[in-house]
Design brief:
This protein is an alpha/beta fold. The chain has 8 helices and 6 strands. A 6-stranded parallel beta sheet has the order 3-2-1-4-5-6, covered by helices on one side. The chain has one domain: 3-Layer(aba) Sandwich (Rossmann fold), CATH 3.40.50. The longest helix has 18 residues. Helix 6 links the parallel strand 2 and strand 3.
């Protein structure tokens, strides 16, 4: 299979950010008087903010509107990453990205994270301008594991889904990519909690182990 585009999830793939998110989320939950056990929190990884808060609102019988909860959460995350100076890309990611660009392939980020947060992180990593497009979960009707975000990304890149290779680290992300009819590389990141990525076409644990010739 010769691919025309490579689509990256951001959190846990481009940057090992899940420990940051967990710190922020657990602190926010605590301030709201909510306890979310680790095994439940792991099910939210890779899913959209709306999906997460819909589940929490229902199970905890919260009175706030979903939009209010999402806005609060996104504002906290945005301020955290704006103030954070210790952001570095996943090892060997920039080398792999450079090889994709050199091969003339299209690149995109398709992340459940809010667009302003994505932009702050990618700019701090100095890779923002390396992507043709960036699509956030806010821009589609249904978040991962639904295929919406990847189908929207392919449409904006002007490629068909089967011409796309996706790199994902979460159960929800892999399901989303495969539901969209795309080839999926499952990136095993131990900091992303327990994630069943067995449905991926291939599983890797380092960007150094991806052969660009397999994607050209």
């Amino acid at each position: 299979m010769k691919f025309k585009a490579v689509i990256f999830d951001m959190d846990g793939v481009i940057i090992d950010s899940e420990p940051f998110y967990q710190e922020v989320q657990i602190d926010l939950f605590h301030k709201m008087g909510i306890f979310v056990p680790p095994e439940e929190y792991n099910t939210f990884i890779g899913a959209g903010m709306r999906e997460m808060w819909n589940m929490i609102k229902s199970s905890r019988r919260l009175t706030q509107h979903i939009e209010e909860l999402i806005k609060l959460n996104n504002n906290v995350l945005l301020e955290y990453f704006k103030e954070s100076a210790a952001l570095v890309p996943t090892p060997f990611f920039t080398d792999f990205l450079a090889s994709i660009l050199a091969a003339g392939m299209k690149t995109a980020v398709a992340s459940s994270t809010a667009k302003p947060v994505i932009e702050v992180i990618l700019k701090k990593l100095d890779v923002y301008n390396s992507f043709d497009i960036i699509v956030s979960g806010d821009e589609v009707e249904n978040g991962k594991p639904a295929p919406d975000i990847f189908l929207e990304t392919a449409a904006r890149l002007n490629v068909i889904p089967s011409e796309c290779a996706v790199i994902e680290d979460s159960t929800n992300g892999v399901k989303s990519a495969k539901s969209a009819g795309m080839y999926c590389l499952g990136y095993h990141n131990p900091h992303s909690g327990y994630q069943d990525i067995s449905a991926a076409d291939k599983i890797i644990n380092s960007f150094a182990k991806i052969n660009i010739d397999d994607l050209k």
